[in-house]
Amino acid sequence: MSSKEAILAAAKQNKPQATPLPDLLQFPDEPNLVERYEKGLSGNGGSLGEGDSIEDINKYIQENFSQDQLIASLVEGVAGNVDVNKISDPHDLEHVEVAILKGELGVSENGALWMPEKNVVHRVLPFIAQHLIIVLEKSKLLTNMHQAYEKVQVNDDGYGVFIAGPSKTADIEQSLVIGAHGPRSLKVFLI
């Protein structure tokens, strides 16, 4: 018997007994999801938008951005001046100032948003725009990541990402920099 065979035989002989996996932990639902979500979102550097309708979102865009800036909207009823669906090369999105996208799920414990590929068209869009506005239905707020992972179906879209605030880094002289590698701001509107 070779030394390799002896080692494998000894390992097989001394294998511990299998034990059953523990039950999945259950967490209680958060009673005030909107308040908790706002706390998580603001802790990540994002902010919750005022208002709860498409008209409020359009008003916010008109008040905070000029019409000569490139605005890409994938939310019905919110006007943009860039048709993302007609762009084949993602490099053509490099000058997009504002991207308005629809979120699929919101997680109250940490302010994260689940963004499947169908909601962003180009994977780069939520990261290349200078300002990100995400519209999320209040009914899609969840208490925690455990609930989110139960609902996320990666196989349906092939790609998805959790976004939790604007781009941040603190690796340069341990100073926090917002917008170094992506959006400088994130605003979420709950409708």
Offer a quick outline of the entry:
With 191 residues, this protein is an alpha/beta fold.
Secondary-structure map:
Elements: H1 3-13, H2 33-43, E1 47-48, H3 54-64, E2 70-73, E3 96-102, E4 105-107, E5 112-116, H4 125-128, E6 131-136, E7 141-142, H5 145-151, H6 154-157, E8 160-163, E9 168-169, E10 177-178, E11 185-190
Parallel strand pairs: 1-11, 2-3, 3-6, 4-7, 6-11
Antiparallel strand pairs: 4-5, 5-8, 9-10
Q: Which CATH C-level class is it?
A: Alpha Beta
How many DSSP-defined strands? Answer: 11
Q: Using only CA atoms, what is the Rg?
A: 22 Å
Number of spatially distinct domains: 1
Oligomer: single chain
Main sheet characteristics: 5 strands, parallel
Write down the secondary-structure element order: HHEHEEEEHEEHHEEEE
What is the global morphology? elongated
Structural class assignment: alpha/beta
Residue stretches low in confidence (pLDDT < 50, at least 5 long) are none
Region (Disordered): 1-24
Domain LUD: 92-191
Protein name: Lactate utilization protein C
InterPro entries: FTHF_cligase-like_sf, LUD_dom, NagB/RpiA_transferase-like
What does this structure look like?
The chain contains six helices and eleven strands. With 191 residues, it is of the alpha/beta class. It has a single domain, classed as 3-Layer(aba) Sandwich (Rossmann fold). The strands form three sheets. It has a five-stranded parallel β-sheet with strand order 1-11-6-3-2. The protein has a four-stranded mixed β-sheet with strand order 7-4-5-8. Strands 9-10 form a two-stranded antiparallel ribbon. Strand 4 (105-107) and strand 5 form a beta hairpin. 29% of the residues are buried. InterPro entries: FTHF_cligase-like_sf, LUD_dom, NagB/RpiA_transferase-like. This is Lactate utilization protein C. Residues 1-24 are annotated as: Disordered.
